[in-house]
Design brief:
heterodimer; A: mainly alpha; 20 helices; 55% helix; 0% strand; elongated; B: mainly alpha; two-stranded antiparallel ribbon; two-stranded antiparallel sheet; 23 helices; 2% strand; flat; nucleus (chain B); Nop14 (chain B); rRNA processing (chain B); ribosome biogenesis (chain B); NOP14 nucleolar protein (chain B)
Chain lengths: 450, 648
């Protein structure tokens, strides 16, 4: 064995020994077999795909044990990365969803060396595929790549890396056994992946896992700044999600983000109380606004905007945002002037606060009042009305803990109410006459029985 | 009998006792502490030593025994000569077994009591005697002699009389007889009979004399009276009272007496005038309204909880409230169920009939609506117009129907009678929903109502113990039935409309059960929605049944309360519907608007703020805009505020 494989015809026609000829022929048959198997990875039936995947991985394992190609220089460890690349390419097809096969592949990713070479292969593959398509997103391909790379479990310490497919003694010197190289490969893979435009669903998914499964495993997290800045500028839910990554960069990596609070302020729009990531956003907003060095006008602007938006919020969000606003008042006593203007404006036009103004300092929030919270005292939900009634009392010194309220859902509220038992059930005293037969029934005006 | 003889006898008995006590003595003798030895100073030959060894304890006890049996007995029987004889049958006869003894005694007792007139008189048959004469006979004599106590010689009884009274103290009688014999020896001594006859004759004579004297006295007084009357007429001009009395008393007195003795009617509350009744009703409503307002503000919720309402000791805790109007007594009249508030009901029926008429006439208008709905026109204007038309028509019809009302009531009566005649009068509460359904199946609406009413009456909680739970179940069945009617292809809304009334009544009777049932329905609906959201990501608007349930909730419970066990979950559920349901068809819009009006009705009294409602309306407006204009994702908050104010 040894050297690269010459072409089949050359060997057969050449004048090498019969044994060599046989070996070369066998190698070619093996290659054919691998080729067939890689084609079968795209088969319709999952069972076929699965068994061909397993067979290929078995080949990888065997090749790692007995390398087909001799060591190029002494001490280097050969890994059948060509074969693995074939497998990886099979795992991330361009036109179909291969998440099932990818989840089957998870067990092989436990091997540190396999993981490393998969990362490299993926990076290469992305470069090749995306170069060809030029800016046009490939939803299936990107989805597949994402499900493959998001499931990568990076080790935290070098000591944890003990599971290798290739069993060699001189492993310590092998660069694959270094965490640093893993991190590099990981970083390069993600950066290549994120370099290209993503579909918005995938965008959100990436941002959701960014802060706790990508950033910590990168050699230089600051490389993500560009990506996050762009995402923060997109607006809507994507901005909300980018906030988390930005926070880590600002907090741990000394990122200075210009007009961060202005941007945060502009993130507050009516959808803020309705989106899925509400809990996450308010958790971060609480962190950002916990600084006592913020100017009062800024906090007041936040308070005003949050309370203005609260007029359209569902009860579960209101139950969270009212204590949130109260906490802001506690941290920034200078804003309490808002609470101490009990008589709100007669008309919305008289409210000095300018909702449309994007610059918090220009919004004249400090001149206004929190009449919105006051009107929430008439909210139909008794708990919300109770919470809003806190304006009538003097604020306590201790901050409310809102962590338990962040994840409140409407169904939880409903269940809580329906489980309450009351010994005394008040009854309607007005005698009914029929379905719409009440006095001054609004229904009779709009609906008829038929 | 000599005492010596007695003593001998006793001694013999003692010796017998001694014999029986011998072993004990032997035992005592062996005990050195019981023995007293008399030491002999000198041994004298030929002398019998009798008392060398003594037993002081034994001899003392013997002596005491002897004393109690002789001296004590004598002392006790001192100066007593009577002897108590025990005549009980066979008391000391040991030969007869106790059972036999008892039987004998029992037969003896029965023999003794046989033929007695009075079982309580123990001495009836025993003849008591005095000096050999029956005491009963002497008593008879007494009666004759002592006929009149009004004798002149009271206290001083003649010798004969006393003799006769006390059986004649034999000696005395004999003495007298002997003295008489001495006086007139020829005369035969009078026999007892003769004596008595003489006595009788004497007393009779005396009696007669007394009577005649009394009569003469009476005559004299009468005469005197008459004379006095004559004089009186001369003295006073007034007619004598007696004459007046004789004529008049009849009618007047009788009436007076009658009235006097007649059962007096107790003072009762006077009948209330219409105005007062109206005032009372108003006061009641005011109180209820005040309660409602208090609950609406939700201020003293806590206080209320602390003070439980006063519960009477007679309270059956069946949730039956007296001051509500819904109670109906079960009574019969001419063999038919007598409905207490017939008038009221008839009115109601009449009104219902009116409604039906209205609906009948309205059909044309509403059909138009349906057409519009089915055409799926995107513009709502035509829809609105038709609605307005319908409203206008309704008003006109109301006037008409008011005029017709009285007629309708009259027309209805025979119908009702016919319907009633077909139905049985008593119904058991159905155990399951299937039974309940089969009970109502195939009946007209009126019949269904009657059936429900009768079920309620026949099973009123005050009639039997288990009725309460049964009727509570009935509420659930009725609710389910209404839901089923609403889910039909052609929802029977008119039937539902009428079934509301029994539902309301049941709810008034059993608030807890009713609230439990409705909460259950709401929870089911909400959980269903949750599941749909989990599966599809977005919910769809619920069916008509759920909407009807929500409407019913507003009819049964006060929606203005700050917190209410049923209404608050209903609120949350509706707000979730408005926020989480996707609008895909025009029908969805209508359902959403229905919920909006429901919410509006819920908060119409309490004037609460419902953001979801405004959001939904804005969303609907946004959808209804032509596409080119619909650029702003959200309508500005300014509009929202204005809208909010206008709603309030």
């Amino acid at each position: 064995m040894g050297g690269s494989l010459p072409a089949e015809e050359d060997v057969l026609s050449g004048n090498s020994s019969a044994e060599d000829k046989y070996k070369a022929w066998m190698r070619h048959r093996y290659n054919d077999c691998v080729e067939c198997l890689s084609e079968l990875l795209g088969h319709d039936s999952f069972r076929v795909k699965e068994s061909s995947l397993c067979t290929l991985m078995k080949f990888v394992e065997l090749e790692a044990e007995c390398p087909l190609v001799a060591e190029q220089w002494k001490g280097s460890i050969a890994f059948p990365h060509h074969l693995l690349k074939v497998v990886v390419n099979g795992l991330i097809p361009i036109h179909e969803d291969a998440s099932l096969l990818i989840s089957r592949f998870q067990e092989y990713m436990e091997f540190d060396d396999v993981r490393y070479f998969v990362m490299k292969a993926v990076t290469e593959s992305i470069g090749q595929v995306m170069q060809k398509t030029k800016e046009r997103p490939l939803p299936f391909y990107q989805q597949n790549v994402f499900s493959l790379i998001s499931s990568i479990n990076m080790p935290n310490k070098e000591r944890d890396m003990v599971k290798f497919m290739v069993k060699q003694d001189k492993r310590e010197e092998w660069k694959v056994s270094k965490l640093q190289t893993h991190k590099q490969a990981f970083e390069r893979m993600w950066l290549t992946f994120l370099k290209y435009q993503l579909p918005s669903g995938l965008y959100k998914k990436v941002l959701v896992i960014l802060h706790d499964s990508i950033l910590p495993h990168m050699n230089e997290p600051t490389l993500m700044i560009d990506f996050l800045t762009v995402a923060y500028g997109v607006g809507g839910a994507i901005s909300l999600l980018a906030l988390n990554g930005l926070f880590i960069l600002i907090h741990q990596h000394n990122l200075e983000y210009p007009d961060f609070y202005k941007k945060l302020y502009s993130l507050l729009d009516p959808s803020i109380y309705h989106v899925k990531y509400r809990a996450r956003f308010f958790h971060l907003a609480d962190l950002f606004l916990s600084s006592s060095h913020l100017p009062a006008y800024l906090v007041a602007a936040f308070i005003k905007r949050l309370s203005r938006l609260a007029l359209t919020a569902p009860p579960e969000a209101l139950l969270m945002v009212i204590p949130f606003i109260c906490n802001l008042f506690r941290r920034h006593p200078a804003c309490k002037v808002l609470m101490h203007r009990p008589n709100g404006p007669q008309d919305l036009s008289e409210d000095p606060y300018i909702m449309e103004q994007e610059e918090p300092s220009e919004s004249r929030a400090l001149e206004s009042s929190v009449w919105e919270i006051q009107s929430l005292q008439n909210h139909y939900h008794p708990d919300v009305a109770h919470a809003a009634a806190i304006l009538k009392q003097s604020l306590s010194e201790i901050e409310d803990d809102i962590s338990g309220l962040l994840e409140l859902s409407a169904s939880e509220l409903f269940d809580k109410e329906i489980k309450k038992t009351s010994a005394n059930v008040p009854l309607e005293f007005e005698q009914v006459r029929g379905l719409f037969g009440k006095k001054n029934d609004i229904f009779a005006e709009h609906f008829a029985l038929d | 009998m000599g005492k010596a003889a007695k003593r001998k006898k006793k001694a013999s008995t003692f010796s017998k006792a001694k014999g029986s006590a011998e072993p004990t003595i032997a035992m005592v003798k062996s005990n050195p502490f019981e023995v007293k030895v008399n030491r002999q100073k000198f041994n004298i030959l030929g002398r019998k030593t009798k008392n060398d060894v003594g037993l002081p304890g034994v001899s003392r006890s013997k002596a005491i025994k002897k004393r109690t049996q002789t001296l004590l007995k004598e002392y006790k029987e001192k100066e007593k000569t009577n002897v108590f004889k025990d005549k009980r049958f066979g008391e000391y006869n040991t030969k007869i077994s106790p059972e036999e003894k008892m039987i004998k005694r029992f037969t003896l007792e029965r023999q003794q009591n046989y033929g007695k007139k009075n079982i309580y008189n123990l001495n009836e048959d025993e003849e008591l005697t005095h000096f050999g004469q029956s005491l009963a006979e002497i008593e008879k004599l007494n009666d004759i002699i002592d006929s009149d106590s009004d004798t002149d010689e009271r206290g001083a009884l003649s010798a004969e009389l006393t003799a006769a009274h006390f059986g004649g103290g034999g000696g005395l009688l004999r003495k007298k007889a002997s003295s008489e014999q001495e006086d007139e020896e020829e005369e035969k001594p009078k026999s007892r009979k003769e004596l008595i006859e003489e006595l009788i004759a004497k007393s009779k004579q005396e009696k007669q004399e007394r009577q005649s004297r009394r009569e003469s006295a009476l005559e004299l007084t009468e005469k005197l009276d008459n004379d006095w009357k004559e004089i009186q007429t001369l003295m006073a001009r007034k007619p004598p009272k007696s004459e007046r009395k004789d004529k008049e008393p009849d009618e007047y007195d009788m009436i007076v007496r009658e009235l006097g003795f007649e059962m007096k009617a107790k003072p009762s509350e006077r009948m209330k005038t219409e105005e007062e009744l109206a005032k009372e009703e108003e006061a009641r409503l005011q109180k209820l309204e005040a309660d409602r307002l208090r609950r609406m503000r939700g201020i003293d919720e806590q206080e209320n909880k602390k003070k439980p309402s006063h519960v009477s000791a007679d309270d059956l805790a069946d949730g039956f409230i007296l001051d509500k109007d819904d109670r109906r007594l079960l009574s019969y009249k001419d063999g038919k169920m007598n409905i207490e508030n017939e008038e009221e009901q008839e009115e109601e029926e009449g009104e219902k009939e009116d409604n039906e008429n209205e609906e009948g006439e309205e059909e044309s208008a509403t059909e138009d609506e349906e057409d519009v709905a089915s055409d799926n026109h995107s513009d709502l204007e035509s829809d609105l117009e038709s609605e307005e038309e319908a409203a206008g028509n309704k008003e006109q019809k109301k006037q008409k129907t008011n005029e017709n009302e009285s007629q309708n009531v009259e027309e209805l009566d025979p119908k009702m009678e016919a319907a009633k005649s077909e139905l049985p009068y008593t119904f058991a509460v159905p155990e399951s929903y299937e039974k309940f359904k089969s009970l109502l199946a195939g009946r007209t609406v009126e019949q269904q109502l009657i059936i429900l009413e009768r079920i309620q009456k026949c099973n009123h909680p005050s009639l039997a113990v288990g009725n309460k739970t049964k009727l509570e179940k009935l509420f659930g069945f009725l609710l389910e039935y209404i839901g089923e009617l609403a889910t039909l292809d052609l929802p029977e809304l008119k039937t539902i409309d009428k079934l509301i009334l029994p539902l309301y009544n049941l709810c008034q009777m059993f608030p807890e059960a009713a609230s439990g049932n409705i909460k259950f329905v709401l929870r089911d609906a909400a959980h269903e929605m949750e599941e749909v959201i989990e599966v599809k990501g977005r919910a769809t608007f619920p069916g008509l049944d759920t909407l009807i349930y929500l409407k019913i909730t507003s009819l049964l419970f006060p929606t203005s309360d700050f917190w209410h066990p049923v209404v608050t979950p209903a609120f949350i559920y509706m707000s979730q519907l408005l926020t989480k349901c996707r609008i895909t068809t025009l029908q969805d819009v209508i359902k959403g608007l229905f919920i909006c009006s429901l919410l509006l009705e819920y908060v119409s009294l309490s004037k609460r703020f419902v953001p979801e409602l405004i959001n939904f309306l804005l969303g609907v407006l946004h959808i209804s805009l032509p596409k080119q204009q619909a650029q702003g994702e959200f309508v500005s908050i300014n509009e929202l505020r204005n809208f909010y104010i206008s709603v309030l």
